[in-house]
Design a protein that fits this description.
This protein has 22 helices and 19 strands. By secondary structure, the chain is an alpha/beta fold. Bound molecules: adenosine-5'-triphosphate and magnesium ion (MG). The site of adenosine-5'-triphosphate has 18 residues, from helix 2.
Length: 562
Amino acid sequence: MEEVGSGLLDRLDAMQRVAASAPGGPLLIVAGPGTGKTRTLTHRIAYLCAELNVFPERCLAITFTRRAAEELRHRLDGLLGPVAEDVTVGTFHSLGLTILRENTAGTGLPDDFRIADDADRTAARAEAGDDPARYTSLLRKQGMVDLDDLLTLPVALLRDDRRLVQRYRDRWQWIFVDEYQDVDAVQYELLRLLSPADGNLCAIGDPDQAIYSFRGADVGYFLRFSQDFTDARLVRLNRNYRSSAPILAAAVQAIAPSSLVRGRRLDPARLDPEAPLVGRYAAASVADEADFVVRTVDELVGGLSHRSLDSGRIDGRSSTLSFSDIAVLYRTDSQAAPIVDALARANVPVQKRSHDRLRDRPGVMAIARELRHVTGVDGALPARVRLAGQSLAERFATPTLDGSHGVRPEDVRTAVDLLTPLARRCGDDLEVFLSQLATGAEVDALDPRAEAVTLLTLHAAKGLEFPVVFLVGTEEGLLPLRWPGTTPDDEAIAEERRLFFVGLTRAQDRLYVSHTARRVRHGSERDCRPSPFLDVIDAGLFERLGDTAGPRRPKDHQLRLI
Ligand code: ATP
Ligand code: MG
């Protein structure tokens, strides 16, 4: 293995360095959870720009969520300094929007086209009835596109215009895609158009964390990367920096029956012999399960009654555990309420991550419509309008909206809290701000520093890590999820197992799984069995927790690790 003598790559391990410093051409990085994907991707971009004289403006980094794009941008800034601004970083939708804005002439859209909001789409649907063709033409007549259009229209443009394709290929000669396992058909086609078969396309991801097929993602694109792209180089990252050895061993066993990665390996970088086993609690009821979570949080954080935050200890080190180190994960949103209630009764602060889009929050789109109205963006004025003498953030701080678009005072209060930071991030550019709203910027109520226990669905937990994780409701019917009267097929089960794997691998130091004997599902209380996904994990990796649930130190788990 060739060592790269650059200081930039010093913070990477040997395989991460191989990936970051690989030569041009198609590159697929297959990397499991906790192996440092973002770290590797950002270092590769920085290395290419700083050491190999690649121009930052020739680089395009694509992610799936705005939050992930911001994280990438932030880390690139740290590595490259001001030139990082020249790297194009965005989501697939923002990339599509850029291409559309630069080529409205070819689409028949007006220069100041805008993205339809929910009200616009509902109105168009009501008028169009069942006629999808008609729906589109109604939007077009009003100079609007919808979210799907942001991908399909650029693809259609590029498909028909080889010169345009070449222009973008010249502009973005280096393309990087994070979470490639979640690509869907139209995103894939866009990538194929932007990158030649032998182009400098670097895709990074983990097929075993593909959990979005219900949204049209197809892990098949990941698996056939080397057929699609010429002489693709493959680098695997197997060293996991996140989880203790018992947690990692349990996770690797859990994914084994459905793994899409040949010889799936995850080698623990952390080898603390004192690391606790995975706690397993069999609850009698949902209330009992919630009590178990509260009791354990109490023990970990140390006496909720006096709310001392300094008595928790991890792995025998005298590290402090606080509420913000703890996450409770579940398969369906409906499982959150009993846990939230029980924690609240014990005076434990909680924050629940909402993965909703901002635009779906009450009042937000009304505010956006009103803003358009008062600033003239929805009229004959050009789209790029700044608010005279007032930044967008200031405008929200002192709303003087006239209410003609259905904005209620309580909407303004919610929107000011949520929106002001987004407005700031948009550089006070109203057009960018409205596009962010329309392209589904998530509400990210989650504050990593908040002194609160975090509650999340498994889907929302992707990419995150916490010192302590509870995975509740590990029961047949919930994991894998089953709707009444239906039987999930093999592919659906495999996806549920990947979701389970995502959940287990969020934990750094302590992991607890729990299941209850009875639960109300679909309107009636039923007996429940533990999830069959638990059966494939070696019993020796679990510590069965009884009524006096609490972390105990294992004696012999090292013998049982793979
Ligand atoms: P996921 O698939 O869950 O999104 P990931 O591959 O993106 O995981 P990261 O979140 O980037 O993993 O990294 C996991 C943890 O490992 C982070 O806390 C990161 O700082 C740490 N880490 C990654 N690489 C190294 C390294 N070379 N040395 C030390 N720590 C590292
Ligand atoms: Mg990640």
